[in-house]
Design goal:
- With 273 residues, the protein is an alpha/beta fold.
- The chain is 34% helix and 23% strand.
- A 6-stranded parallel beta sheet has the order 2-1-3-4-5-11, with helices on both faces. Strands 7-8-6-9-10 form a 5-stranded mixed beta sheet.
- The radius of gyration is 19 Å and the shape is elongated.
Length: 273
């Protein structure tokens, strides 16, 4: 059965790489795309390819007039929640590639998805190697309780921490043991220099750097007496690494009801698409 896809954020960094990838899949059909600043332009031309005869919509509301199975969102933090809730209310499955959502947002999305009988996949990073970084970090946390996260991105990235670092911190907080570092409440001087305390279990400190020359990187730093372990993911300058994971999520999202927040759960059975 062909999966009919609507892409929100078609002319963005990931969108431009994902549009032709979706069109190249034998089991997928791109039936609509949204790009507010390029509304009315041909989808293929606007994303750097050949004309397709399909025109970009200015809003997701407009794009959803066409029947589809899955909505993929790679837009902006200020828009993603409304897009997801709209798609869910229309009975569409959703793949979220946009960062910036909070734990409360995910709880609301999960409840709405279950109420409407649809699946939602949200991953902080759809890169295969970033997903493996998280998997290996979770393995290490079972043996080394002291861990902190450093999140690197360009000076213009609008959200902090990145979705990759946020997802990693939240997941690590659920399984790590008690750390030996002083809690921030006992730190003198400027406790905020210790970073943000994140996670609903045993919280993890997250430090976000935003500087020119960085693209996207994330590292988990573990410490024991007289030894350290760093597990790090570095992204290149293109969006290619995120395409394979997103295609995998598009294929699998209809198998679920409610929210799935870990790409590695999908990778356990399929490491390539």
């Amino acid at each position: 059965m062909t999966i009919k896809v609507v892409m929100a954020g078609a002319t963005g960094w990931v969108g431009k790489a994902l549009i032709p990838a979706i069109q190249a899949q034998g089991d997928m059909q791109l039936v609509g795309a949204v790009a507010r600043r390029a509304v009315g332009h041909d989808i293929g031309v606007a994303t750097g390819g050949q004309p397709t005869g399909q025109l970009l919509s200015g809003t997701l509301v407009e794009a959803l007039h066409t029947p589809c199975d899955v909505v993929v969102d790679y837009t902006k933090p200020v828009a993603v929640r409304d897009h997801v809730m709209l798609a869910i209310s229309r009975g569409r499955h959703v793949v979220i590639g946009t960062s910036g959502l909070r734990a409360a947002d995910y709880r609301e999305i999960n409840a709405a998805a279950r109420a409407n009988g649809v699946g939602v996949v949200a991953a902080g990073n759809y890169s295969i190697t970033a997903t493996l970084m998280k998997k290996f970090a979770l393995m290490a946390a079972q043996y080394v309780p002291d861990v902190e996260i450093i999140d690197y991105a360009s000076a213009r990235k609008p959200d902090a921490p990145s979705g990759t670092a946020l997802e990693l911190a939240e997941t690590l907080s659920e399984i790590r043991g008690a750390p030996t570092a002083l809690p921030t409440s006992e730190v003198y001087g400027h406790p905020e220099a210790r970073g943000a305390t994140m996670g609903e279990g045993t919280a993890v400190q997250v430090h976000s750097l935003r500087l020119p020359s960085y693209q996207l990187s994330c590292e988990a730093v573990f410490g024991l007496p007289e030894e350290r372990l760093t597990i790090r993911h570095d992204a290149g300058t293109s969006a290619v690494p995120y395409v394979a994971g997103t295609l995998l999520a598009i294929r699998r999202v209809r198998e679920f009801t409610g929210l799935v927040r870990v790409l590695d759960a999908l990778m356990d059975e399929t490491l390539s698409v």
